[in-house]
Amino acid sequence: DASPDTRSFEADVAKLLHLMVHSVYSDKDVFLRELVSNAADACEKLRYEAIAAPALLGDDPQPRITITLDPDARQLTIEDNGIGMTQAEMAEALGTIARSGTKAFMEQIAAKKDGEGGQLIGQFGVGFYSAFMVADKVDVLSRRAGEEGAGLWTSDGLGTYAIGDADPAEAPARGTRVILHLKEDAADYTRRFSVEPKIKAQSGHVPVPIVLKDKPDAEPAQIADGAALWTRSKSEISEEDYTDFYRTNAGQFDTPALTLHYRAEGVHEYNVLAFVPEMRPFDLFDPDRAGRMKLYVRRVFITGEAQILPRYLRFVRGLVDSQDLPLNVSREMIQESPVLAAIQKGVSNRVLSELEKLANSDGDKYLKIWENFGSVLKEGLYEDYARRETLLGLARFKTSTSNNEWRSLKDYAADLKENQTAIYYAVGSDIERLASSPQLEGFRARGIEVLLLTDQIDGFWVTGAPDFEGKPFKSVTQGMSDLGLIPLADGEQPPAETSDEVAGFIDFVKATLGDVVSDVRASERLTDSPVCLVAPEHGMDRQMERLLAGAGQ
Ligand code: ADP
Ligand code: MG
To answer: If 370 and its partner were Cys, which of 165, 182, 232, 374 is the partner (CB 3.0–4.6 Å)?
Structure first.
């Protein structure tokens, strides 16, 4: 049946398309990067499938992306000889959004007024649909590797698309051709002097060669050689090269805050190219969010699911290219491989040591990373016992005496008061409320610094009873603190002696409250407030109690 079938986009896609068409987002060039990156992905997928099924390559084994300009017809075409899509795959991939973070993105968009979504699109990236920023109609002709038939997907980006059989003579022999019917004001994208530098700059380092034809019948000219950036030596690579690669390869729109590029040699050989983003991705706290490190084996892309880094480093993007893993290792078997385990360990340690280095060499730059990702890194304090020491060293805190500045535990330990043996902390959801809590009065009177912990994860790692350089962490709400031993700051009044009068009053309160409290005591910790509730010395922290109560425990 050759008659095409008209279908509606999934609701989220329709919303995104509407946004894009009405967006004032100015950087329309990104559609080039998105479509080239999809074409490169398709070639890499084929390269992987061909390991097990070499026949898929037929007589055209070299991957290639071809960009054709047609000024007369006002069209731009991006074609690859990669894996291709069946009609069912096109309907699935181009009619729905599988991108992680879409939900969080949509929620942010919904909270904005009309027209304000443009910059957000720039931060999120909408992949294939960015084509509709410059085109009022897009045709996708595709033939899945190894299949006879071909499909045609067509849409004007206004809510529906049509899908049906394509004339096999028209379709690529293998792979996908995306034809953009450009809007009137996008005619520049049919001119070589405009398009070529943009592609070179944005996508010059994708691991697939790119050729350009400036007219449909012109000779193709190579504009990118497809050499994998990460295999080249650092000294040949500029910062712009790294940024462009990061954007194309990781689908990001910002500039890396930290770039790691090195080759591990010794028992295992592998290349690592990894980036810490400058901005927080939308889905950082999405429970489904997985790591973003890709695994290659001798330049062949194997999987994005190898979990090369622990969960608390899920904000790091990039890739590892192994020399030692067998090429034909199945994605399922990879997780069992001792080679992968060694890579995981090596790369994780290296990321943390690079962060340490940065913290020492450029504190401000490091603090930006901490502000974005500190709450994720702290998950490691809870999950990764073996690296807790390192992570505690990387952690930064706002404290009761820091005036909203970040402090390290080293800073804290250097400023301990006479007789102070513990690191004190208070857990809560709001920093101002914490800072003014009566629980802190006795600490303030002695000039003792208290860590103010306001991240969700804080209640968890801190009760695991870790210590830092031999100093235990102690909650200010927990039991009688050792305040009596620590001298008051100048000008503070010592508390009234526990007189007969006070003792009588305590007996009265105990009798009145009965079983509701386990004890009533005169305390060193209060200076202004008359009374506060504390948890027993070995009982649960009050914030923890609330968390568990909230979880129905
Ligand atoms: P992403 O690349 O992040 O998955 P996109 O919106 O860019 O998101 O693309 C959506 C999906 O469409 C891809 O995951 C892929 O399955 C499919 N796709 C897009 N372009 C191509 C192509 N040139 N060849 C094969 N599949 C493609
Ligand atoms: Mg894409």
So the answer is: 374
Angstrom distance (rounded) from CA 24 to CA 112: 14
DSSP assignment of 359-392, as one string? Answer: HHH-HHHHHHHHHHHHHHHTHHHHH-GGGHHHHH
- If you take atom 20 of ligand 1, which residue's CA is the nearest one? 38
Tell me if 87 CB under 6 Å of ligand 1: no
Neighbours of 155 (CB within 10 A): 25
Query: Looking at residue 33, what DSSP letter applies?
Result: H
With a 6 Å cutoff on the Cβ, whether 99 touches ligand 1 is: yes
Pocket test for ligand 1, best of 32, 38, 130 (most atoms within 8 A of CB): 38
Where are the strands (E) in 53-201, listed by range?
Answer: 65-70, 75-80, 135-143, 151-155, 160-165, 175-182
Token representation of residue 541: 């922290």
Shortest CA distance to 467 belongs to which of 388, 383, 406? 388
- Does residue 45 line the site of ligand 1, with CB under 6 A? no
Which pairing describes strands 300-303 and 258-264: parallel, antiparallel, or unpaired?
unpaired
Look up tokens 């505690």; give the residue.
Answer: 392
Q: What is the pLDDT of residues 79-95, one digit of tens each?
A: 999 999 999 999 988 88
Residue 496, pLDDT score: 55
